[in-house]
């Protein structure tokens, strides 16, 4: 893990040493966290509690079609919602990224997002395609 902070930034922000975070894999077309997914989310929440200066980017892939973009959005939303509602993490600590290229559509990557800018919530891109 890199320890460079990309510049010192303000002292009040602190530096983030959260390290590597697990990715969460969804099966099939599911948008619900599996038992394994919930266990991984709990470990992510614990690392976030232990590193209060850190922000986390939640990254979903799938740019190939409207349905892939919406599925990516639903999965990113599900992970963030779980961490906020079930684990009590402040929603301001997340960066919401969906429909990205270069990754597996079934995998949501969780990465240190400290110092990055981005919204912590975005409207569903194609709400009429949402999976229930």
Please describe what this structure looks like.
With 132 residues, this protein is an alpha+beta fold. It contains 2 helices and 4 strands, in the order E-H-E-H-E-E. Strands 1-4-2-3 form a 4-stranded mixed sheet. Strand 2, helix 2 and strand 3 form a beta-alpha-beta unit. The longest helix is centred in the middle third of the chain and has 20 residues. The radius of gyration is 15 Å and the shape is globular. It starts with 23 loop residues before the first strand and ends in a 20-residue tail after the last strand. The N terminus is likely disordered.
List keywords for this structure.
single chain, alpha+beta, 2 helices
Give a topology summary.
Layout: E1 24-25, H1 35-50, E2 56-61, H2 66-85, E3 94-100, E4 107-112
Parallel strand pairs: 2-3
Antiparallel strand pairs: 1-4, 2-4
Number of strands: 4
List the strand order in the largest sheet.
1-4-2-3
User: How many distinct helices?
Assistant: 2
Tell me about the largest β-sheet.
Answer: 4 strands, mixed
Amount of beta strand:
15-25%
The share of residues in helices is: 25-40%
């Amino acid at each position: 893990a890199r320890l460079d902070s990309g510049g010192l930034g303000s002292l009040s922000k602190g530096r983030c040493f959260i390290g590597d975070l697990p990715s969460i894999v969804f099966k099939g077309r599911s948008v619900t966290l599996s038992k394994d997914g919930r266990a991984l989310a709990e470990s992510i929440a614990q690392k976030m509690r232990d590193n209060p200066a850190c922000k986390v980017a939640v990254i979903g892939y799938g740019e190939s079609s409207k349905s892939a973009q919406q599925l990516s959005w639903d999965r990113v939303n599900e992970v963030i919602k779980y961490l906020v509602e079930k684990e009590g993490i402040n929603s301001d600590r997340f960066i919401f990224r969906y429909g990205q290229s270069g990754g597996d559509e079934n995998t949501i990557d969780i990465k240190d997002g400290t110092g990055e800018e981005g919204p912590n919530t975005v409207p569903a891109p194609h709400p009429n395609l949402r999976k229930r």
